[in-house]
Amino acid sequence: MQRLEGKRSIVTGAANGIGRAIALRLASEGARVLIADLDEDAAGKVAAQARGEALVQKTDVTAASDVEALVGRAVSEWGGLDVMVNNAGVGVAGTALTTTEEEYGFVMDVCVRGTFLGMKYAIPALRDSGGGSVINMSSVAALVGIPDRAVYSAAKGAILAMTRASAIDHVGEGVRVNCIAPGTVDTPWVARITSGYDDPEEARANMQARQPHGRFVTPEEIAAMAAYLAADESASVVGACMIVDGGVTAR
Predict the structure, then answer these.
(1) Pick the residue with more confidence: 211 or 220?
(2) Catalytic (active site) residue 104
(3) Which residues have C-beta within 8 Å of that of residue 97, sequence separation ≥ 6?
(4) Which NCBIfam families does the UniProt record give (predicted)?
(5) By three-state DSSP, how is residue 4 classified?
(6) Distance CA 72, CA 21 (A)
(7) Residue 59 neighbours by CB under 8 Å, 6+ apart
(8) 8-246, which class in CATH?
(9) Contact (Cβ atoms closer than 8 angstroms) between residue 14 and residue 37
(10) Does 189 score more than 80 pLDDT?
(11) Side-chain-facing half-sphere of 110: CA atoms under 13 Å
């Protein structure tokens, strides 16, 4: 399928995991992709695997100057922007009591501030290009209670709320803002989270067991949803939270 032929897109946090899968999927459907990540070398490897035109830019999504430059590069290289995927995020395991203030600040800064800055600088470019799609990355943790994810849940809930508010703010400008709420996705993030437990393998098994369909969600399944939201066929999808969770929220 080439339903994204000619679309100019940015994906943040695209060096691995969900972001990598989204970048490769958008490229496979004809989009030009600007791959943004702090890990420039890993991002370059993704670009080398992408079908079609792919650029790389080292980006700290918490730095306004970096995000402004990222969007500016897409506009200067391609003459505009059609799709912005605010995927970059981090998480920590912990309750409100066990999470440190430093961890709180880190998670909120990357997830919430990063998404805010992505919209702040991308939406004017999308509007100037005649409209486009913003895809933010929320989580089922924004919708149901997940043990040991207090601050992560707060951050993803903020992204959901900001998505809906921004969708109403900008729909009249031809900019659609939506988010995806994945369940537990099998990415390097799982290994980082479980490494903090006494028994990482048990923690991984518990994370997998809470998926009613009996397995982790794959990055490619999230990427398929992102491709749909990027495409013109989702023109009436505005302010939506697209759940891809294997049934977690259906319980």
Answers:
(1) 220
(2) no
(3) none
(4) PRK07231.1
(5) coil
(6) 24
(7) 12, 36, 37, 38, 66, 67, 69, 70
(8) alpha beta
(9) yes
(10) no
(11) 19
